[in-house]
Amino acid sequence: MSYKKLFDLKGKTALVTGGSGILGTHFCSGLADAGANVAVVDINNQSANELASKLENIYSVRAKGFGCDVSDPISVSLMVKAVVEHFGEINILHNNAAGKSDDLNAFFAPFEDYDLDQWRKIMSVNIDGMFLIAQAVGKQMIKQGKGGSIIQTSSIYGVMAPDHRIYKGSFYLGRQINTPAVYSASKAAVIGLTKHLATYWADSGIRVNTLSPGGTESGQNEEFSRLYSARVPLGRMARAHEMVGALIYLASEASSYVTGQNIIVDGGLQAW
Ligand SMILES: NC(=O)c1ccc[n+]([C@@H]2O[C@H](COP(=O)([O-])OP(=O)(O)OC[C@H]3O[C@@H](n4cnc5c(N)ncnc54)[C@H](O)[C@@H]3O)[C@@H](O)[C@H]2O)c1
To answer: How many CA atoms lie within 13 A of 192 on its CB side?
Structure first.
């Protein structure tokens, strides 16, 4: 038996939502490097197309960008149809998109003042979007009759509370930040959806798992990085490429007996 081949994704088609984001870019690149054809799905059509062209050039796989708002059922249904028309089938789904907000003041508002419309807007992407995409792609996988692998991105804050003390003096996106409750609640819901679908679709050979990243370096100020890192057993924030190994494992035959799990890639933060 070639154990290395278990990780090979040649001939598979992967659909990645939030595909041209900070982590999404690494996820799509990792899947392509493992041999998969990649449908890069993002609300930002242009960045999705640009990344897809790069993947084709660098990894010699088929890749295409698809503009889609995962919170809109019509947009999702048209996108999945277009992906199937282009690639023939979908074998791997990485449900990864998450919304921040156009209005960062509303997104980072204190809980006591949090606006219901803002709460709903984030939920509509982070969990309604996961539901709509899993529903549309799961239906397609069942139609294909070959099983499949679904990976859903949660977060360390789907399994543990943020330490609110680390946000004092922490700047990102040009302002003071925190982790809003809507983020924690939506990410905990992702884990619930994963477990439900893992048992629901087990008979169809569709495995469903969660990947939970810890805080990843992406331009946070030094103070945030210092305070966050001090709580992490490995002593630092994650680097975006460090999420990819777990994704390829979950996407491939290497994890053929793994379903309903949550792989937490957090430098040990959750282990204290
Ligand atoms: N970066 C981290 O530190 C970190 C930590 C834990 C979990 N995560 C999770 O990892 C995933 C990727 O995060 P990221 O850091 O790459 O964030 P990001 O903001 O860079 O990427 C998110 C992507 O989703 C897209 N998107 C937003 N709304 C959308 C919609 N309605 N429809 C389709 N696409 C939409 C954005 O355009 C963006 O490309 C998210 O689920 C996030 O919650 C990230």
So the answer is: 11
Ligand 1: does its nearest atom lie under 6 Å from the Cβ of 76?
A: no
Q: Could you tell me whether strands 37-42 and 13-17 are parallel, antiparallel, or unpaired per DSSP bridges? A: parallel
Catalytic residue among 149, 155, 170, 186: 155
206 lines ligand 1 (CB under 6 A): no
CB of 215 within 6 A of ligand 1: the answer is yes
**C-alpha 216 to ligand 1 mean position (Å):** 12
Q: Rounded CA gap, 33 and 30, in Å?
A: 5
Q: What is the pLDDT of residues 147-178, one digit of tens each?
A: 999 999 999 999 999 999 999 888 787 788 89
pTM of this structure: 0.98
Per the listing, tokens 């799990």 go with 261
Q: Does ligand 1 come within 6 angstroms of the Cβ of 173?
A: no
CA of 3 to the centre of ligand 1 (A): 32
The dihedral of CA 255, 61, 218, 174: what is its sign? negative
- Written out in words, the top-level CATH class of the domain with range 4-103+123-161+181-216+239-271 is alpha beta
Sign of the alpha-carbon torsion through 243, 245, 248, 249: negative
